[in-house]
């Protein structure tokens, strides 16, 4: 078995693979102040509840976009699982040709998503990851990673309305029945959900023009992908496990 770990700004997602099969996956909140031992207990308990054991883990791979948590999770792996994890970053073989000005700057999660998408779908393609931030990653017909766009995530956007406008409440991220809201909550939900779908359509349209690729597969992932994919036909497929798959693939390329 291998353990794959994706440390995002909101959630840490863990996956346990046997070969190509994802046996279990777990989602923790990203708690920047939690300790090595706290994560050890949490993950140990999740394993125990799933009838799996740290002893069966032959290797661990981690991608992180939260630098202060990397060392904590690495030490947790060494102390409790007894394995030195691979870290997605400089020096690791991803097989991806990065056309970013400074390849070290690209978020590890974006690299991992691109690797998984290239393996599973036909290029050219775009990956949209609805996380804390929403990222668009463009891959051309030759499987080169071109870059993309970063926009505020759905959660951040919704939170900003609540934080900055006294009379706007905190709302559920839920699709309203109509775009013309007749109360504050429905008006906010309409703006956020339908506005976000429109934003995705607009960015994808511009990407297609700039890449000169009228036919381009668009894959969505991340916690909130299904919500937006239901509101636009510019997303061809939702693949919730894309990041975990990418980590499994990169692990195997570095064995
Ligand atoms: N399975 C899910 N169902 C509904 N919402 C989810 C799910 N997973 C994550 N979310 C929400 O999606 C948002 C982004 O989470 P996630 O995709 O894990 O972001 P990140 O990769 O930045 O940590 C968060 O608000 C989270 O609560
Ligand atoms: C854009 C991100 C914040 C997305 O992170 P997430 O929403 O998955 O937590 C992350 O990929 C990141 O910090 N990237 C570095 C900047 C870049 O990719 O150019
Ligand atoms: K992510």
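Q: What amino acid sequence fits the structure above?
A:
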């Amino acid at each position: 078995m291998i353990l794959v770990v994706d440390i995002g700004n909101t959630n840490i997602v863990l996956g346990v693979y046997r070969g190509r099969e994802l046996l279990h996956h777990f989602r923790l909140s990203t708690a920047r102040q939690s300790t090595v031992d706290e994560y050890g207990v949490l993950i140990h308990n999740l394993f125990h509840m799933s009838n799996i054991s740290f002893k069966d883990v032959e290797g661990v791979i981690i991608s992180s976009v939260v630098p202060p948590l990397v060392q904590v999770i690495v030490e947790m792996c060494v102390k409790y699982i007894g394995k030195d994890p691979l870290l997605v970053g400089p020096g690791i073989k991803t097989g991806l040709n990065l056309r970013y000005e400074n390849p070290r700057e690209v978020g590890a999660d974006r690299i991992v998503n691109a690797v998984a998408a290239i393996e599973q779908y036909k290029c050219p393609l775009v990956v949209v990851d609805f996380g804390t931030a929403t990222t668009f990653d463009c891959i051309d017909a030759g499987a080169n990673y071109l870059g993309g766009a970063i926009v505020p995530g759905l959660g951040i956007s919704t939170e900003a309305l609540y934080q900055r406008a006294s009379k706007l409440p905190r709302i559920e991220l839920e699709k309203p029945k109509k775009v013309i809201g007749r109360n504050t909550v429905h008006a906010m939900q309409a703006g956020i959900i339908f506005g976000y779908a429109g934003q995705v359509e607009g960015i994808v349209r511009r990407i297609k023009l700039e890449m000169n690729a009228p036919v381009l597969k668009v894959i969505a992932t991340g916690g909130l992908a299904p919500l937006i994919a239901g509101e636009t036909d510019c997303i061809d497929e939702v693949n919730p496990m894309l990041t975990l798959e990418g980590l499994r693939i990169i692990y195997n390329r570095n064995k």
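Q: And what stands out in the fold?
A: The first strand starts at residue 2 and ends at 7.
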